[in-house]
Amino acid sequence: MRYSICSHGTIIGYTDLDIECINENLRMGFVEPTPEGRQALLDATGVHAVCAQQPLRWRDTDEEATRQHLIAFRAASDRREALNLELRDEQGEIFPCAYMRICDHFMEWPPVSDEDDPLNDPDLDPELRAQLEADAADFEEWLADFEEERKADAWKWQHEEPDPRFGTMQYTIQVVLREDGWGEVSGFE
Fold first, then answer.
1. What pLDDT sits at residue 29?
2. Which pLDDT tens digit goes with each residue over 93-149?
């Protein structure tokens, strides 16, 4: 089924929501922009763009740079929320969902340096260090389990070629059906 992505009654793109997902609560698809939707898609992905242009270092002490970054971040958030995005089916009916997010896969992020890792700070509060290390260990365990499951299920997809659209389509949409369904994905409550 082909869905329309709309902002204030204007179709900004189309999607089939045909990317396989690991959670029944999530639908994903590539976005085919309309000419009218170009600016809206820039606004929909603008928060990530602000973060990518000027990443806020966790130890940044330049208060004015931090203030300007937060102003730009807030403005991008406001533009995104003002879009009031809707997803409509082929009959024009609203597709109910908790929320949706559009991602720009052509955006370039700056490299992360060791300096940006809070665990490399010798002055880090010991209690915070312990919590961060525990969180990192939990994530690594989840990632290892996920990779093990992926390898065990690899036989199911051996005949399939990677989707070529990942290299040619700039935008994807993620549609979350219910907000209460994410605990099942991450394993963290």
1. 94
2. 999 899 899 999 888 877 767 777 777 788 888 998 899 889 989 989 988 888 887
Tokens in use for 61?
């002490």
**Per the domain annotation, does 52 fall within a domain?**
yes
Question: Domains in the chain: how many in total?
Answer: 1
The answer as to whether 147 is a domain residue is no
In a domain, 150, yes or no: no
Global confidence as pTM = 0.71
Tell me the residue range of the domain where 95 lies: 3-112+163-186
Query: Roughly what angle, to the nearest 10 degrees, separates helices 63-82 and 46-53?
Result: 160
Query: Do strands 171-176 and 99-104 pair parallel, antiparallel, or not at all (unpaired)?
Result: antiparallel
